[in-house]
Amino acid sequence: MNIQYALWILFCVIVIQKPFANTYYIWHWQMRHQIDDQTLEELKKIPLHGLFYRVGNFELRDTRPYLERIKKQESFVQDFKKLTFPEIHTVYTFENSSNQGFVRGYMNRPKSQGVDFVARNMVEDYEYLRAINPSVVGIQIDLEGPGVDFSVYLELIKRVKVLAPSAKISITPMSSWHKRPEFLPVAKASDLIVPMFYDFHRGKKVEDPLKVTDIPWLKRIVSEWDQLKVPLLIGLPTYSYCVLYDHHGNQAVPWAVTSPESISDNPVWKLISDNPQSNDRVLLWRAQKDFSFQRQPFKKGSSMKYNFVSSSSLSAYLESINSLPLKHSHGVAFFRLGYLNEPLVLDALRIRRSIANEPLPKLKIEVTRISVSNKDFFLVFSNQGEPTWFGGEGLRVRIKKSRLLGSSSDFDHIKTDEDEQLSELVEEYFDSGETLVTPRIKEGKDDLDIRVHLLDGKVRIFNLKAQDLQKESVLLESD
Predict the structure, then answer these.
(1) Which of 355, 390, 422 is a domain's end point?
(2) d(CA 101, CA 93)
(3) 244 and 99 in a common domain
(4) What is the pTM of this model?
(5) Residue 308 is part of a domain; what is its CATH number?
(6) What domain range includes position 382?
(7) Residues 306 and 418 in one domain
(8) Is 13 among the domain residues?
(9) pLDDT score for 479
(10) Do 301 and 179 share a domain, yes or no?
């Protein structure tokens, strides 16, 4: 075998085995720069090809057109220069929630000069940011919602191309627009089409389904878009749903941002364990009385409902896309980048692990003993895997023939039966990266039972022997 042939085989093996076989983009959606150095390094490891960087939102203020631009801090120019990805696209959104919004209340109106106002502002930002960072190569028009006039949309794209002929124009159509004939000229005029294959079902009633996306639907709808024969980027979600329903069961806040930790830590919110959607990563808490929570009043019967997207969920979405024989796909775009410790949105580390098909383990909990005397100790539970599934509780620790010496604890609930010499500590939501410390424990003779609910609806039961607890730490892992 000659050297050239051997090198060619080695090259083929490396390419085939490389986990990052796709081209990846992501949205930076916050209206201020929130890509710290740690996040930036994780994005480079993906490696990320393109960044959709939101820089403005068009709206009406006192009936006058206005562009709210991203807030630029003192270090903005230096921070923006650090974004050394092959492509950066500036992104613009549009107020379009009512007839008085920017789209229907101004841009769509005849002789409003709306297209010219939008195009000139977009190009001005594009030129300014491109002068700072030459990776800026495109402009994204995120025009969606009710009342979109496709003829105005097409006129806007053409106008931007006249003012900035070097800019790549990308659009983010709603997933159903491929069925509308009047949309096709808009798609053909664009350089990159990024449909939003998410927001699958956000129920108006508390009993309605709640699902960010759905794999069978995803495979079908992406295949249909591929038949348009336009350059396609597949938009996938990295966020979870959190929806507030009022005491009548009607949707009150479609985009609530309450972390499940804060909900489960408040005893007035009760986890509804018989929720029929719970096996689909949908969880429901209900207020047991009128009360105030996070400076907001809630009526008895109000509900907070979640549909969780984890790193393993995202891996499953990517696997389903990669199984399709697509001819016009240019890669995948993730909506959106979560900043460090942001609730309900995957951060760069979790997105990178999802792409590499190395999501956090479904179950990996370290139990550490902290001895304070010959007979007294604390137990520390650290979740190094995914959040636990909570069809009644996420983590239940049962302690027999040992006595709790205090009531202060990180767990949500403590139940004690003196007659049975039994104590139970329950955590409804055991989050990834969370650490829980038990109250002080007086050592007994019996074992420790630990029950863990996982996101897949399965239950794992571990029985720690007395001798196990003599070790410095014990690792609980799934099969």
Answers:
(1) 355
(2) 12
(3) yes
(4) 0.83
(5) 3.20.20.80
(6) 364-477
(7) no
(8) no
(9) 60
(10) yes
Q: 9 lies in a domain?
A: no
Q: Do 39 and 184 fall into the same domain?
A: yes
| 450: CATH | 2.60.40.1170
Looking at residue 111, what is its pLDDT?
Answer: 82
| Residues of the chain under the 50 pLDDT cut | 1, 5-20, 390-392, 455
Out of 355, 384, 416, a domain closes at: 355
Burial pattern 34-57, b for ≥16 Cβ within 10 A else e, equals ebeeebbebbeebebbbbbbbbbb
Q: What total of structural domains would you count in the chain?
A: 2
